[in-house]
Amino acid sequence: MNVRNIVDALIEAPVITSFTRIGYAVRARLDAWQPLGEYDLSGRVIVLTGATSGLGKAAAMQLAECGATLVLVGRDADRNEKAVAAIIESSGNPNVTQVAADMGDYEQVKALAYRVLAEHDRLDVLIHNAGALTPDRRTAPDGTEATVASQVIGPFLLTRLLLERLATTPQSRVLTMSSGGMYSSALTVSGLQMSEAEYRGTEQYARAKRAQVVLNEMWAERFGSLGIHFQAMHPGWASTPGVDASLPTFSKIMGPLLRSPEQGADTLVWLAADELPLRSNGGFWLDRRPRSTHKIPRTKSAETLDRRQRLWDWVSKTCGIDPALPDANPRAE
Asked: Residue 132's CB: how many other CB atoms inside 10 A?
């Protein structure tokens, strides 16, 4: 192990150094990171969900500055348009559009996929970033718990609907913004949706994020041969409007150590732009390096092959699509 790897491992061991701006600053210097502004993404089409605030907006701004053609996805069209206008004005890149869609509403996800397929003959990067931690239990239109619907099932459906377009675009990527919070939660299928009586927002969020990471690995295993690169990552602890609203005490106590939205989004943009992530598939990243998906034994032992398969089958059934079927593309009415 070389000196850089030793230093990185020492930072990674305690969460307080790894997840905060301390880890970001040390690793950026340790590995002599290439500035994101030096990447040229001209001509590349990128779809980014959850793009109107926090990490998503920071990523969108940087991707636009790199010249990408961006499709921003958010639930509210007016808010989306404001984000588009701000990004175009700041970056000088006019190739930024928006589609209003709730990722927990599967009909809206299908409509989003159809728009992307109709308007773009290539798709270089699909980024699943939309997500929220809610203190009260909510449900999606189909009755599924809303966190699971919008962060697990909706992204799965969108990935499948855009799979062929991704497969025909060289070096395409599907990126998932997970959370370090998933480290505390083991994979569960029967308990993936918490009941009203047991519901805790932080735990529900962690369970959904664990499922995201497992599905990322399974997409890579099953469809990596198509030339699509599936990668997941977590941003560390970043200061965003979502964190302030959902975890106010944590935000107040940890405030000086929290990463900026730009720092939290750095690895996401890097995964979309750099060549290194094309050398592997199904990885989990933080600060431009692959990381283990487990920190405690109980989460690893719970992740059996049978449970992983049951997760895949349940998500497929819930969104009403079989990933193996070739006729799964949405069609205009």
From this structure: 18
pTM higher than the cut 0.90: yes
DSSP-based three-state secondary structure for 47: strand
User: Does residue 205 have an active-site annotation?
Assistant: yes
Active-site residue, from 24, 39, 183, 205? 205
SS3 label, residue 239: coil
Return the SS3 of 114.
Answer: helix
User: First vs last Cα of the chain: how many Å apart?
Assistant: 58
- 3-90+112-319, what's its fold? Rossmann fold (3.40.50)
Helices 305-319, 201-223: inter-axial angle, 10-degree rounding: 100
The domain ranges of the chain are: 3-90+112-319
pLDDT digits (tens, 9 = 90+) for 273-312: 999 999 999 999 999 999 999 999 999 999 999 999 999 9
- Whether residue 156 contacts residue 319, with contact meaning beta carbons closer than 8 Å, is answered with yes
